[in-house]
Design goal:
This protein has a single domain (4-164), classed as Aminopeptidase (3-Layer(aba) Sandwich). It is 24% helix and 40% strand. It has helices at 4-13, 93-110, 136-148, and strands spanning 21-27, 36-44, 47-61, 66-80, 83-84, 114-119, 126-127, 133-134, 153-157, 160-164.
């Protein structure tokens, strides 16, 4: 049974426990950096969650064929066997987010040229103060990410969310 104090603590300080995850697939061409891919998976109950990270150069050195700085695009899917893209209203969103943030932090730590994260939340059904569509999912992601990456800048461009690493 979930206790109310556990839920409040998770919302208040992003303290939900992550679940173990695994690197399922990785692609990188050291000869000519254009794009890198990594796929991670983790399981909660009977659902396998897949996080796909693709890294693209923002600034590229033509001479050395190396990226100076890059961004990552993050996509996410829940797989319940034959019923792909299952409804994820399973009250495990805090574990999912804690695991996702842990994966992102690990990836960024291992790839220090990453200065930006991009994603597009779906299920848009509400308008924000500026008249733009905004979903509960988007607001949840925003609040969780801002608590987990407090110094990063959160920018909304259309349906895309961009989170920029602070400059040092």
């Amino acid at each position: 049974m979930i206790k109310l104090t556990e839920i409040l603590q998770e919302i208040g300080d992003a303290s939900a426990l992550k679940v173990p995850y695994r690197l399922k697939y990785k692609y990188e061409n050291p000869e000519n950096f254009t794009v890198k891919y990594a796929t991670y998976q983790f399981d909660i109950d009977d659902v396998t969650y897949t996080v796909i990270i693709s890294e693209d150069p923002i600034s590229y050195n033509l001479k050395s064929k190396k990226s100076k700085v890059s961004k990552i695009d993050v996509s996410f899917v829940a797989d319940d066997g034959p019923e792909m893209m299952k409804d994820t209203n399973l009250n495990v969103q805090y574990k999912v987010m804690a695991t996702l943030v842990s994966i992102l932090k690990e990836y960024i730590e291992n790839n220090p040229i990453v200065v930006q994260i991009e994603y597009s939340p779906i299920k848009t059904n509400k308008k924000d103060k500026g008249g733009r569509a905004e979903s509960r999912r988007e607001l949840f992601y925003k609040q969780y990410i801002q608590k987990s990456l407090p110094n990063w800048t959160y920018i909304k461009r259309g349906s895309n969310i961009i989170i920029k690493k602070p400059t040092t």
